[in-house]
Amino acid sequence: GYPNVGKSSLINSLKRSRACGVGATPGVTRCLQAVQLDRHIQLLDCPGVVMETGTPPAAAPLRGALDPQRLRDPLGAAAAILRRCPPEQVGGG
Fold first, then answer.
1. Residue 16: which domain range?
2. Does one domain contain both 41 and 13?
3. Total of domains in the chain
């Protein structure tokens, strides 16, 4: 699945313990991890996957593919977000 959609959090909820590390930024899960849920069920936690779509690099942060703190051009990502928002939601008034 995509980065930061709750794959690890879902496994933790099902396991009812902290079996997988979770965080607010992409990249916490770095490798495949098998978690035994019960005697018959084993779940796999894996890093997020973002397929290359040929879209401009400013769209990568919108898909959760990049940590916002590591962006070279945060204004480009912010502009891409604003282009997708209705003007009445952004105006604040």
1. 7-45
2. yes
3. 2
15 and 31 share one domain = yes
16-25 pLDDT per residue, tens:
999 999 988 7
Indicate the pLDDT class of residue 4, thresholds 50, 70 and 90.
Answer: confident
**Polymer length in residues for the chain:** 93
User: Model-level pTM?
Assistant: 0.61
Q: HEC profile for the chain? A: CCCCCCHHHHHHHHHCCCCCCCCCCCCCCCCCEEEECCCCCEEEECCCCCCCCCCCHHHHHHHCCCCHHHCCCHHHHHHHHHHHCCHHHHCCC
